[in-house]
Each structure stands twice: as C-alpha cells, then as structure tokens.
Amino acid sequence: MNSLLVISISIISIFFISLLIKSFLPLKNQKNFCAICIAVSLTWLIFLIASWLNIFSNRIILAILMGQSSLAIFYILDKKQALQFFKLPLLLTLIIIPYALIAPSQIKELIPPLLLVAGLSIIFLLIFSLKSNALAPFIKRVVECCKRW
Fold first, then answer.
1. pLDDT of 29
2. CA separation for the pair 33, 41 (Å, rounded)
3. Is 100 in contact with 117 (CB distance < 8 Å)?
4. What's the structural domain count of the chain?
5. pLDDT for 148
6. Which residues contact 117 (CB under 8 A, 6 or more apart)?
7. Domain shared by 4 and 59, yes or no
8. 57, 73, 89: which is the final residue of a domain?
9. Are residues 3 and 68 in the same domain?
10. Which of 82, 63, 73, 86 is nearest to 145 (CA)?
C-alpha cells in the first residue's frame, strides 16, 4: 500500500481519537492539548518503530513529520522568555535528534555536529551569563532576529 496514504490515514485517525479524548479532559487542560500535534507525533513515532523493525521503509515521510514536530517544539520553547537567546543552538539540536532517530546506524556522523552545537551552546551561555553593556546589543539582535514588525 502507498506509504503516504497509510501515514495520512494514521494522522486522520489519531487526530479524531485525540479530539475525542480532549473532550473528556478538564477545560484547563484542553488548551494545552493539540490534537494535530499528537496525531503527527504519534504517527511518526509508530512508523519510526516500524522502520526499526523493518516493517516500514519510507524514511522521507518520517523525516518530514519529525521536522514538523521539531518546529512545533521550537515554537513552544521560543515562547519561553528565558530560552529566546538560545534559538540557534536549540534549532540545531532539534535537527540532530530526529537525524539520530532516523539513521541510528550513522551515529558516528553525529559526533562533529554534536561537538559544534555543544561549543556553540557554551559560547551562548558565556555571552548570556556576562550580559555586559557591550554584549547587550548582540543579545538583543539574537532575541529579536525572528520578531515580526
């Protein structure tokens, strides 16, 4: 069967099941419950496991779905004021994690990017912790890099 069709049917099914589950949650919890996010995330997780078991082979669609989840996580974390300066290391980390999940046999390829992101994170932590007047404009530019006018 067409893997894109199977993925689409899975997302639709999990979406409606999630909507049903959401209706039973207390109102205060419903606003933090995104049926689409759950549908996409559970779908790629299920098919990723199926991929590891050699039952499902379309890793392109898995990568697309994982990218959607990574972007959603990025946007959620970007709303946290304390993390806004760390957008770049966070984004790079959210690229590395799905790659590691999709291509576990190529784990050696992750060492250089992991070291790069670790080094970048340390630099960002040092800059953020210093917060001197000289660095304030740089910090402001990084935080506001994606702000809309």
1. 77
2. 13
3. no
4. 2
5. 59
6. 89, 92, 93, 96
7. yes
8. 73
9. yes
10. 86
For residues 46 and 71, the answer to whether their CB atoms sit within 8 Å is: no
Residues 94, 54: one domain? no
Tally of CB atoms within 10 A around 149: 2
Alpha helices (H) in the chain, listed in sequence order: 3-23, 27-30, 35-52, 59-78, 87-102, 111-130, 136-143
Give the length of the chain: 149
88 and 53 co-located in one domain: no
**One digit per residue, pLDDT tens: the chain, 149 residues?**
799 999 999 999 999 999 999 888 887 777 778 899 999 999 999 999 999 999 999 999 999 999 999 999 988 888 887 788 888 999 999 999 999 999 888 889 999 999 999 999 999 898 888 877 777 777 778 777 766 54
**Token pair recorded at residue 25:** 């949650």
Domain containing 43 equals: 1-73
Are residue 86 and residue 112 in the same domain, yes or no? Answer: yes
> Do 19 and 2 reside in the same domain of the chain?
yes
Q: Which whole-number Å values give the CA distances from 35 to 17, 29, 40, 99, in the listed order? A: 8, 12, 9, 25
Write down the pTM of the prediction.
0.81
Assigned token pair, 55: 């039952």
